[in-house]
Amino acid sequence: MPLSIQKLASRLTFRQLQVFKAVNDLKSYSKAGELLGLTQPAVSSQVRHLEQALGMPMFEYVGRKLYCTAAGEEMARCVRSVFRELERVQNSLAALEGQVAGELRLVAVNTAQYVVPYMLSAFLQLNPQVTVSVAVVNRAAALQRLNDNADDLVIMGMVPAERPLASLPFLDNELVPVVPSGHPLLRQQTVTPQEFLDSGLLLRESGSGSRLALELHCQAQRLRATPTIELGSNDAVKHAVLAGLGVAVLPKLGVLSELALGRLHVLDIRGFPLRRSWCVVYPQARHPTPAMRAFIDYVQQNIRQFERMFLRHRELNSAVGHQGTD
């Protein structure tokens, strides 16, 4: 016989719901413990007490993988609703005080990770009650997360026009052809695009936005771009170039220090740099939360400031490089 609402409410605790949500989201007791600052036995104990209160198991293992039971799926929907309501109340109370509060879940594609910290610095000073989380993924994963409506805002380039997405361009992203110091191509007066691409091209994995930008450029210019090595991040590609494993097309903001110090060099090649814009993106059907709206407005009002900020950042790196070569 089902418990009355009063009895059920007396047996459940908010901590149990919080732990349940973390285990369900991460599909792991140990990862949930890391997220919440609990030991794995403490997480297991909270879930066990929740199951005892409800009289049904919430999770089950199939092989070594953790799954929600049917009862767990129903509980997950309920818990998501509870947390959404708590966030709504938090936002409403903050609005009564004339402040913006709540969680802002951002996703940044790999190339945008160099930009996001600078954007957030002033925003969080203006909105100290907003809690921000940032996940860094490749373009394919960012598009999937947009499709799943899993986050608040995505910072990416090359926004697909065929999808119902709202986007706000805010900063240029230059992709430049780089080689390491001492590379044979540096001794040539002119370098053709195909010569560069045939010099041991290092590429990101399929699904990366920077790789897609280069592939689209090569298709339009009828160039061959065959990778010698594929790597999973721009930093990995950069270090592979520094190690002499090949050449690459990388976001300029990600290699400013290496360029300033003379460890990497940008080649003057026809058709480069590739220019794209970083954009703040979200589904058109999504109703922005107060934290989302505050961040969008902040970006829109500070586009010129971002441009000046990164220009100063580039000049500072250049000055450091000149001091190092004196």
UniProtKB/TrEMBL annotation:
Task: Tell me the keywords, alphabetical order.
Answer: DNA-binding, Transcription, Transcription regulation
Keyword DNA-binding listed? The answer is yes
Residue ranges occupied by any HTH lysR-type domain in the UniProt entry: 12-69
Record Pfam families = HTH_1, LysR_substrate
Which branch of life, at top level? Bacteria
InterPro entries in alphabetical order: LysR_HTH_N (IPR000847), LysR_subst-bd (IPR005119), WH-like_DNA-bd_sf (IPR036388), WH_DNA-bd_sf (IPR036390)
Q: Which family is this protein grouped under?
A: Belongs to the LysR transcriptional regulatory family.
* Cited PANTHER family: HTH-TYPE TRANSCRIPTIONAL ACTIVATOR CMPR, HTH-TYPE TRANSCRIPTIONAL REGULATOR
Q: What is this protein called?
A: LysR family transcriptional regulator
Protein source organism: Marinobacter aromaticivorans
